Amino acid sequence: MKRLKVAVLGCGSVGSQVVRLLTEQADDLAARVGAPVELVGVAVRRLDAPREVEVAPGLLTTDAHGLVSGGEVDLVVELIGGIEPARSLILTALEHGASVVSANKALLAEDGSTLFEAAEKAGRDLYYEAAVAGAIPILRPLRESLAGDTVTRVLGIVNGTTNFVLDKMDTTGAGFTDALEEAQELGYAEADPTADVEGFDAAAKAAILASLAFHSRVTVADVYREGISEVTAADVASAREMDAVVKLLAICELKDGAVAARVHPAMIPRSHPLASVREAYNAVFVESEAAGQLMFYGPGAGGSPTASAVLGDLVTVARNRLAETRGTGESSYAARAVLPMGETLTRYHVSIDVADRAGVLAAVATAFSEHGVSIQTVRQEGRDDDAQLVVVSHRATDRQLADTVEHLRGMEIVRDITSVMRVEGMSE
Amino acid sequence: MKRLKVAVLGCGSVGSQVVRLLTEQADDLAARVGAPVELVGVAVRRLDAPREVEVAPGLLTTDAHGLVSGGEVDLVVELIGGIEPARSLILTALEHGASVVSANKALLAEDGSTLFEAAEKAGRDLYYEAAVAGAIPILRPLRESLAGDTVTRVLGIVNGTTNFVLDKMDTTGAGFTDALEEAQELGYAEADPTADVEGFDAAAKAAILASLAFHSRVTVADVYREGISEVTAADVASAREMDAVVKLLAICELKDGAVAARVHPAMIPRSHPLASVREAYNAVFVESEAAGQLMFYGPGAGGSPTASAVLGDLVTVARNRLAETRGTGESSYAARAVLPMGETLTRYHVSIDVADRAGVLAAVATAFSEHGVSIQTVRQEGRDDDAQLVVVSHRATDRQLADTVEHLRGMEIVRDITSVMRVEGMSE
């Protein structure tokens, strides 16, 4: 009976859980695959580094290149992350006839096409469910379950760190800095939290989601990005007053046949299914023409959940190897244009401190209408010697909305703009 | 270039949407499949029946058997429902070399093994994502994404009618009969609502979910079933008092290597992700060893959403045909025993009207402990001349709990037991 040989590249928190499952679940995996799956090597940077799992010393190697180019490996699991050497190793593995499972969102979002073309040329699989939203099966449903439908929109909470921080700000009233510190103490945020907090991680995932949802190639350079470091306690309080909550969203949409992909904080109504995604959980909300609204929810990170997604891919890829076939692969036939952020449709929530005198509301309303933006609601709150206007617009292009805010800033009656945030997930 | 020929059996609300999508999305489908997909016949009972989609007259036939046995069809979509003639038609289609997509939960739950064996023998696919939870991709994630993990529990809201009725009872305080009438008026419940209300529909889905989750064959006869027709406004109010909500749950669990599958109303905490599933939506909550907690949410029924799931399967099955391969297929290698309901672990919520005198609580507590059931919480509420005890137990076998309730009913100090309901989704 054929045995399938697996090499694992990287043995950090995910890699060690993959190695553990490959060992502990060997019998179940063999039953599911239809042949034994044998771990033949684990590439690491340092042989003597401490790790969460015991690896037989004969399996450990620092020569990742040698491991994937020996021609003896059927399946390569790439868990190194980053661009290089991960890209070279994946390309080498494919050239030498191995199928690949990867969790490398940065690489796939930056240079997926090089990898997909290499997989196509080699006639091998490249699967990467673990690259987006950890254990949540979202790429496979997009690629396969919804393949007969037309996806129109994807809204995702795809970064656990920022969701934890925003959830803390919402439930405790804390400011960004305090909430981030708590996240760091609890291990939900890195010492250098930039990749999460500034939306880089979510932007890579948005590029992957948009590519799959719309059958087109979208790279991270196509994704508009704003992080959460400028979200204030006042923004969160203002959201609360309109029965909304602030989330960092990855939004992928079709507009007139073009793709728009963006990551930014947004207010969403508390009645929206995404609003109930708490702590470091992730969820992806999908709108399609026939299926309607779907949501996929679960842990977005962590060694063990991510390893579950890797193993799911590994079973499929292994079965394909035995059947001498390939899975669905990438589908980029639609080759859509990418819409600039300025042309994306959204709506704004703007809190404005204004002089408390007659005609103020009319002047503000005129500023909106001069930019072609219509107002959905205005709430006026008197204070001692000034007043607060809270405006929620109807949908308009981001450029019209940004121009309106710029205009407001220059008005004599406007003392300060205390909060500007996009609003998503409301029915028009 | 090879064209794939598709026959659709049944042209009701789902069938007509499938026919519409096959026609309208023909170009996209061809791109996703890799070859044109051509509708060659639609089998109906009456040629002149009114339908939601225009079907070219030459395609309509009343001879379903002739359509699937002509040997010219690559893919058969079975949307007739029920046991016969659906079973014979699927078996004939497989024998004649067609791959099959079905949405027939009743047939799969009653006699899936006959179908799976026929598909295996024919070397063809049998896919049925649409049979459980409409458009929500749940079977594919269970079968493929979680194939490297060990699922331990599935909790599903898999019947939209009963969820609508229970949601109405929760939000308006209505009784079962009034809520059901409203559901019927709005088209969420049939004129004869038995299949939904008494849990038969959910039980068929539970059998399918348990089979896939635990790699074993579970039929509808193995599923314990209670409907919602005896859920009272008092039960719902009692749930509300403990910050819980009543849902009809399909529960599939592993216990000591055996499978337990059951459908019954249960109280779940409002903080549980399933509690926020409103109206006629469905959701399936999955617990697994490595991935942790996942939830899949969306519309559980309706022509268009169900057609989306059918088309997703059709694309996969069509691609497999072109590659001359099969998909994952059924995996029943684990061949697990089925646990009787009495041995299933659960917990009870019991509301008891008792005589208001000293020692009542002690007597009731003694009754629980005599059956080996420990109590988690007791709430005592005084009334005019009697008192109400609300007891939530710790986990015990269903038999121990049922015996306890039987014992309580026979006690002299117990005037009435006003509500008995299982509680799920609480941490122990």
Automatic annotation (TrEMBL), chains A, B:
Cofactor: a metal cation
Residue stretches making up the ACT domain: 349-422
Recorded superkingdom: Bacteria
Binding site for NADPH: K105
An MF annotation (GO) of this entry: metal ion binding
Reaction(s) catalysed by this chain's protein: L-homoserine + NAD(+) = L-aspartate 4-semialdehyde + NADH + H(+); L-homoserine + NADP(+) = L-aspartate 4-semialdehyde + NADPH + H(+)
Gene3D superfamilies hit by this protein: 3.30.70.260, Dihydrodipicolinate Reductase, domain 2, NAD(P)-binding Rossmann-like Domain
SUPFAM superfamilies noted in UniProt: ACT-like, Glyceraldehyde-3-phosphate dehydrogenase-like, C-terminal domain, NAD(P)-binding Rossmann-fold domains
EC number(s) given by UniProt: 1.1.1.3
Stretches of the chain forming a coiled coil according to its record: none
GO BP annotations, alphabetical order: methionine biosynthetic process; threonine biosynthetic process
The entry's keywords: Amino-acid biosynthesis, Metal-binding, Methionine biosynthesis, NAD, NADP, Oxidoreductase, Sodium, Threonine biosynthesis
Enzyme class: oxidoreductase
Binding site for NADP(+): L9, G10, C11, G12, S13, V14, G15, S16
Biochemical pathway: Amino-acid biosynthesis; L-methionine biosynthesis via de novo pathway; L-homoserine from L-aspartate: step 3/3; Amino-acid biosynthesis; L-threonine biosynthesis; L-threonine from L-aspartate: step 3/5
UniProt-listed PANTHER family: HOMOSERINE DEHYDROGENASE
Function, as annotated: Catalyzes the conversion of L-aspartate-beta-semialdehyde (L-Asa) to L-homoserine (L-Hse), the third step in the biosynthesis of threonine and methionine from aspartate.
Protein family: Belongs to the homoserine dehydrogenase family.
Protein's recorded name: Homoserine dehydrogenase
Native organism: Nocardioides donggukensis
Organism lineage string: Bacteria, Bacillati, Actinomycetota, Actinomycetes, Propionibacteriales
